[in-house]
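>> received
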Amino acid sequence: MIKVLNCKSKNYKKKLIDFLELRRSGKTVDTTIVPRILKDIKKNKLKAVLKYEKLYSKNNKIKTSKKEINQSIKNLDPKIKKAIDFAYSRIFKFHSLQKPRDIKYIDKYKNKLEYKYVPLQSVGCYVPSNLPSTVLMTCIPAQIVGVKKIVVANPRINGKLNSAVMYAAKKCGVSDVITCGGAQAIGNLAYIEKVNKIVGPGNQFVVEAKRILFGKVGTEGMLAGPSEILVLADKKTEINHISSSMVGQAEHGFGSSSILITKYKEIINKVQKNINYNLKKLPRKIIASRSLKKHGLIILCQNDKQVIELINEIAPEHLELNVYNYNNYLKNIKNVGSVCLGKYTPMAVIDYTAGANHTLPTGGSAKFSSGLNLSEFYKKISYINLSKKGVEKIGKSAIQIANYESLTAHSLSIRSRMRRK
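>> returned
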């Protein structure tokens, strides 16, 4: 049975924060092995990666060849190819609109300032399990930007490549595919492939590895961890819409979070019964059931003020505003990865073919970060060219500030470029 939190309780907010923090703290999963894995890979490279792949995935092959990839693609159902092509087209078009504009500024002294977007040279895209959609979401932005080296890390399943993942990777112009998963895949990307940045969602081990390696390599400015959904529902919302969205999120993995917020007590029992009905039909019933039991929550609010307050506190990865008057809430919702508006917009379709990115901030990081976008694959570089007159005009104030900060050599450096000392 999913936990229910009633906001009539005086300490309801503390109870919610305690519930959220338990999951966000990572204490539900022991990740202490991760630093040892990374240290081993740093020292012993591919030998160490292979050791952990054999141990955790029974995989004894890390490298792939074009021949093996092409052979795998031949086995892919043409209908799946067509669906991937469709998704690729929509994602490519929408993300192409995000292309930034370089800035050039010349002042009255003919000082020139420029701000240019320069593509990263290499990125590693982590793709868990059999998820061609994640290849599209992580690699298409890199492809649009013009990243020269795109490496996909995707574990083999029963020793075999995933045909759909390979097809998506080839379509995205991926340079190489390494077949490993977990923390060892992140270590491989950092220490062996030596990419500039690692992106892509993963479990707690992947998130912890990326956290440790930040600084050695770049990562997204967010936590792309176990997935989350928050559904806002009213008495007009179809019960199966609510429960199917919650169950759909829960089947991702044991760490997934599914939350319902409503002001209507009468729908709670109906939702719980419908969730049980949907679980019965699910191949991943055990995963979804455990996820809902551990990280599922129904919150009964008293008013819209509480609704807004709690949505912003939870800062969900996905938010479904499946209510009649969703526009009344929009302007006050600040902390969220993506928002699905109205009853015809299930979060699940965003995972595939809508065109928006599904690699989004989790664990509350939507309070300070955005989903994966083109900006993640650029560096922004400033270029400054001062004129002879320009350095004299702006140099005077710079000298005053340098002297105030007791940085005398700064002052001397500026003076050396000025005719009037």
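>> Residues 311 and 333 are 7 Å apart (CA to CA).
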